[in-house]
TrEMBL record:
Belongs to the type III pantothenate kinase family. Coiled coil: none annotated. Its EC number is 2.7.1.33. The keyword Kinase applies. Substrate binds at G107, P108, D109, R110, T184. This is Type III pantothenate kinase. Its cofactor is NH4(+); K(+). It catalyses: (R)-pantothenate + ATP = (R)-4'-phosphopantothenate + ADP + H(+).
Length: 258
C-alpha cells in the first residue's frame, strides 16, 4: 500500500491508499525537528488504534517545507524499506508540463494540485487551495501548470491583524451575518471573510479575462466549504485534491496503482 504524505507549512497529512481508496488519514502539525523515529511511533500507534494492518510498500511525499524531507526520507527507508518519491525532484516525473520562468521552484503542492485537477476535470482549470497561503494554480488545456497567484492565507490574514495591532484579539474565521460589524471580532471577521470573497472572485475573473477562455474553478483546503456557502465562487470542491494528485503521480512513475 501507498503512504502519501502532504506536508504544508502548517499541517502535514498522512494517508494510506489501498489502490482504490484511502483507508486512513491522519494530520499533524508540521515541525521540521520531528525525527523519523517520532513519525513512526506516532503513525504506528494510530494504525494500531484503528486496527489498520496495512503493509506500506511505497511512499510519496509533497513538501512545501524543504527541511522536513530529510526525516521523511529516513522514515521511508528505515521503517518501510522503500525509497520515497519526492515531488519536485528530478527522479519523480510529472504527467504534466510546467511552463514558468526559468529558475522558478514551484511549490510541490501546487504541482500536485495541478495534476489532480487535470486528472479529475481536464484542462483550462483554476485550482484554489486554502492552506497557509491561498494559491491559485492555472492549468492549461493540456494539463500544464502555467503559473498562478499566491495570496496570504485566511488564518494568516487574521493572525497578522492580531500580531500587528495591540487591541485586536485572536479571532477564528467565520461567515459574519452582516458586513457592518458592531463589535471588534465581527469587524475583523467581516474584513477577512468578505474581503476574501472579493479577492477570490476578482482574481478568478481576471485570470479568465487574461486567458480569454472559460475555465472551471476547483477549490480545495479546509476553508473552501466556508467560502462556497456564501457565493458561487467555485464550480467544484474536492476535500482531498492534493492526496488524489499524489496517487496519480505515484501511479505515473511506477505503472502501479499501489
Ligand atoms: N470552519 C473553520 N474555521 C476555521 N478553521 C477551519 C475551518 N475548517 C477548517 N479549518 C482549518 O483549515 C485547516 C485545514 O486546511 P488545510 O489543510 O487546507 O491547510 P493548512 O493545514 O492550514 O495549511 P498547509 O496545507 O499550508 O499546511 C485546518 O488547520 C483547520 O483548522
Ligand atoms: C505558496 C505555498 C506556500 C503554498 O503552500 C507553496 O506552494 C510554496 O512554498 N511555493 C513556492 C513558490 C511557488 O509556488 O511559486
Ligand atoms: K494543503
Amino acid at each position: 500500500m501507498l503512504l502519501a504524505i502532504d506536508c504544508g507549512n502548517t499541517n502535514t497529512v498522512f494517508s494510506i491508499w489501498d489502490g482504490t481508496k484511502f483507508i486512513a488519514t491522519w494530520r499533524t502539525s508540521t515541525e521540521h525537528q520531528r525525527t523519523a523515529d517520532q513519525y513512526y511511533v506516532w503513525l504506528s500507534t494510530l494504525m494500531e488504534f484503528q486496527k489498520i494492518e496495512a503493509e506500506i510498500t511505497d511512499v510519496i511525499v509533497s513538501s512545501t517545507v524543504p527541511r522536513v524531507v530529510f526525516n521523511l526520507r529516513v522514515l521511508s527507508d528505515r521503517y518501510f524499506n522503500t525509497r520515497p518519491w519526492v515531488v519536485g525532484r528530478p527522479d519523480c516525473a510529472l504527467p504534466v508540463d510546467v511552463r514558468v520562468d526559468a529558475g522558478t521552484a514551484v511549490g510541490p503542492d501546487r504541482l500536485v494540485n495541478t495534476v489532480a485537477g487535470y486528472d479529475l476535470y481536464g484542462g483550462d482549470l483554476i485550482v484554489v487551495d486554502f492552506g497557509t497561503a491561498t494559491t491559485f494554480d492555472v492549468v492549461d488545456a493540456d494539463g500544464a501548470y502555467v503559473g498562478g497567484v499566491i495570496s496570504p492565507g485566511v488564518n494568516l490574514s487574521l493572525e497578522a491583524l492580531h500580531q500587528a495591532a495591540a487591541a485586536l484579539p485572536h479571532v477564528d474565521i467565520s461567515r459574519p451575518q452582516r458586513v457592518v460589524g458592531t463589535n471588534t471580532v465581527a469587524c475583523m471577521q467581516s474584513g477577512v471573510f468578505w474581503g476574501y470573497v472579493g479577492l477570490v472572485r476578482e482574481i478568478c475573473t481576471r485570470i479568465k479575462a487574461e486567458r480569454e477562455r472559460p475555465m472551471k474553478i476547483v477549490s480545495t483546503g479546509g476553508l473552501a466549504p466556508l467560502f462556497q456557502q456564501s457565493a458561487d465562487l467555485f464550480d467544484e470542491y474536492e476535500d482531498d485534491l492534493t492526496m488524489h494528485g499524489l496517487t496519480v503521480i505515484h501511479a505515473y512513475n511506477t505503472g502501479r496503482t499501489t
